[in-house]
Design goal:
three-stranded antiparallel beta sheet; 4 helices; about 290 residues; single chain; alpha+beta
């Protein structure tokens, strides 16, 4: 891919345990449940933020926040609409939400699985598909569907696809800067942009936090490819806040080239933006 970063080598094989990724980003409505449940006051969810000095006495205050908060930073309407993705949350807040979710609903998952932030490898697998994909028509999922339903594997027609939906783009695929919308959009507004697994808005709308590390140098990653899924250091939750975390997917203010499956960006974990949110994975990784 001539548009790839210098640190991205040709495609290589990465083996991952089975996982499920959220079909949509976490919404304002879903994050509000965490806030109403007292999530900001539960110290067990905030150990890394407390160690870094950003959480204290039930409130979070990032390095550039004007005041301590017990809810996401508000950017007003339409960003705060309940059916829009939650934005204005730091990596630490996304992490705390996942811990609350696992504590409250993790018993519904198969044994050994937990809710967490995805790794960037999980994110990219969900966006590209593997060498093989399942034949189930995920875009036709109905209420009776079971995650344990038997599925047959078929060859992925585009294993090196540029975007989750394929190699070409029009304005119906994703909310990038090219659409001119200039805000987040309600989740589910771009169904033509779904990946081969039926996962929507992996590209565009807002950048997505991952649990993977970039390193301290913004210009050059310490954690490069090839990606080693057994290297737990690159997903060290207790890394210092000076270590940047990988974000994926582009946003409504980002040009299309940032929405490619291969594009890696990076941010300080205590930062919040109106174009930055997250989604949840269910995997054997425990936060």
């Amino acid at each position: 891919d001539p548009r790839a970063n210098d640190d991205v080598p040709p495609s290589h094989v990465v083996t991952l345990p089975a996982f499920w990724l959220g079909r949509f980003p976490v919404t304002q409505a879903q994050f509000t449940l965490f806030v109403q449940a007292g999530g900001y006051s539960h110290a067990a969810y905030w150990s890394e933020a407390e160690q870094a000095g950003f959480w204290r006495d039930g409130k979070f205050k990032g390095r550039y926040d004007n005041e301590a908060r017990t809810s996401p930073k508000s950017f007003g309407e339409p960003f705060d609409f309940m059916n829009h993705p939650v934005v204005g949350v730091s990596w630490y807040e996304a992490l705390a939400f996942c811990r609350w979710l696992d504590n409250a609903f993790g018993h519904n998952l198969p044994s050994g699985y937990h809710f967490a932030l995805p790794s960037e490898a999980e994110w990219e697998k969900a966006a590209r598909g593997g060498l093989e994909i399942v034949s189930f028509p995920f875009d036709k999922i109905e209420s009776g569907f079971s995650l344990r339903e038997k599925m047959e594997a078929v060859t992925n027609p585009l294993p090196a696809r540029v975007y989750p939906w394929g190699d070409t783009f029009d304005l119906n695929h994703a909310n990038t800067s090219e659409t001119g919308i200039q805000t987040t959009s309600a989740v589910g507004s771009f169904p033509r942009g779904a990946s081969v697994y039926g996962i929507q808005e992996l590209s565009g709308n807002m950048w997505e936090w991952t649990r993977s590390l970039w390193g301290e140098d913004f210009r050059s990653p310490a954690f490069k490819y090839p990606f080693d899924s057994k290297d737990r250091q690159r997903e060290d939750l207790k890394a210092r806040d000076q270590v940047l975390r990988v974000v994926r997917g582009g946003s409504f203010v980002s040009a299309l080239r940032f929405a490619r499956c291969a594009y890696r960006d990076r941010l300080n974990p205590n930062l919040t933006y109106w174009s930055l949110g997250f989604r949840v994975v269910a995997s054997p990784f425990r936060l």
